[in-house]
Design goal:
By secondary structure, this protein is of the alpha+beta class. The chain has one domain: PH-domain like. It contains five helices and six strands. It is globular and about 45 Å long.
Length: 120
C-alpha cells in the first residue's frame, strides 16, 4: 500500500463517511491525489514546515495549511484530522489544530510582503 493509499482512507466520490458510517457531504469536493502530492512537494522543498488543520465546515472539507519557516504557506483539502496527523507523521512535521493555536505571525508577514500590487 502506497503513501497515497494510506492517507486517502476513503473510496471514490466527494463525500466521506462519518464516524457513524453515514455519508457526510459538503458543497466542496474531497481531497485527491494531487492535493497530497502538492503537500509532499511543499514539505520536500521548504525548511521548517508546520501543519495547521482547519476543521470541516458546511461549505468546505477539512483542510491543512502548511507554513514554512519563512512564512510561505499553502492550503489543501485533506480527508479529516486523523489523515492530517498521519501525514505529519509520514512527513516528519509538527501539526496543530488551527482553532486552538491560531496561525503563526510569519504567515501573516509573508502575506503582507507578497501581496499583488493594487491598481488605482
Amino acid at each position: 500500500m502506497g503513501l497515497f493509499d494510506r492517507l486517502r482512507g476513503r473510496g471514490r466520490g466527494g463525500s466521506v463517511r462519518g464516524g457513524d458510517g453515514s455519508r457526510r457531504g459538503t458543497l466542496d469536493r474531497g481531497s485527491h491525489k494531487g492535493d497530497l502530492s502538492h503537500l509532499e512537494q511543499f514539505v520536500a522543498t521548504r525548511r521548517g514546515v508546520e501543519g495547521y488543520v482547519e476543521p470541516r465546515t458546511a461549505v468546505t472539507e477539512t483542510t491543512i495549511v502548511l507554513v514554512a519557516a519563512d512564512g510561505e504557506w499553502t492550503r489543501r483539502r485533506i480527508d479529516g484530522p486523523e489523515i492530517a496527523r498521519r501525514l505529519s507523521r509520514d512527513l516528519a512535521i509538527p501539526v496543530y489544530d488551527a482553532q486552538v493555536t491560531g496561525y503563526p505571525q510569519r504567515m501573516r508577514d509573508w502575506d503582507k510582503n507578497h501581496r499583488p500590487p493594487t491598481t488605482r
